[in-house]
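Morning!

As promised:
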Amino acid sequence: MTCDSIRAKLDAFVDGAGSPQELADFDAHLRTCPACAADAIGRLQMKRVTRAAAARYTPSPEFRARLEKNVQPKRPPSWTFGWLPRLAVAGILLVLLALGVTLWMRHSNREEAFAELVDLHVATLASANPVDVVSTDRHTVKPWFQGKLPFTFNLPELQNSPFKLIGGRVAYFEQNPAAQLLFQIRNHDLSVFILQDRPGIFPIAMSSTARELAFNIETWTDGGLRYIIVSDVAPADIHDLGMLLKSAK
Amino acid sequence: MPLFARLYNFAHWLTHDRASAEDLVQETYMKALRGFSSFQQGTNFRAWIYRILRNTFLTTQAGLKVSALVSLDSEDEKVVEPAAAETPESVLLARVEQETIQRALEELPLKFREIILLCDSEEMSYQEIADTLAVPIGTVMSRLSRARKAMRELLSVRLQGVPR
């Protein structure tokens, strides 16, 4: 190894990145080259002081306690089975578990997905700046997402419809980037989430409608994209917006 | 709660604010619990949860603001290393105090600050950093070199005028 080749990868070697052979060659070079050895030691020292300086913030015990309380799974009420033999109780529980676990998991996943979407919708409406691109013009809103999302989509012409486009923002659903578009009808807001459709990303049927916490949800897939509309308006209005989106070219 | 203190420290460096860091960590754990089924067993849990925290931060107002500031420099452009005899870290570190390092870290752009923290403070491997930031390893290497160069420059500027 020459000094030039060492220097090109010095940070990586100091970070321990490289093949065992490369690291051995690097080590051998340092033993014969005081200049590279000094440089490597300097970088190691910088890593050490950066590590010490970066350990700056400590969470308060109050925050830890609050968080532990919030993230702890809610315990079911304790039941008294004094009059039943424990074995029988265990048997009943096992049977119930076997029967119910699949349905429960489906229901639970579905509820979690709905809750996250409703959270995103409500949090957006509660924000002082609900959208990052503010425009009623689809030719302004759609290009804004270029470079921000790994896919593209079409928006419908709304001129002869009761819907109005408010704008859009980038959101994350289940750690996946999504376009969140805000529409309005009769002063009611509708969020349309568009993201790449992947197996298991949305735990309900390909196309369906549902009602959750007084919010209505409609979802479908088209061209590899998953569309989800969330709003408190009537299912018929959501369906109409869905039809417009499906017809967008 | 795994990684609690470390996640909080990282969150505080991203948000610069105690209340925002607490909100960010709380939301990260909530999302991690809700989405634990999406975590693939056998993959890196630490990279997974740091990725959740970072993605959550990027959707906040503050995160969107900083992520909108895109550098025009090419990510893969080679960083010119200083001449061997200069050993800039040794020279700088002889006179630098911890607080100076912290101020320099604060001043770094987000993408440089986070990669230095993940590498030097969290001691993540390049592969873990690549998984956390969702970028190729080559980008990790070039961005890290660039970040350290920026850090050296900030420290040099801060030390200008200090007698040797």
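Chain A has a mean pLDDT of 82.

Hope this helps with the figure draft.
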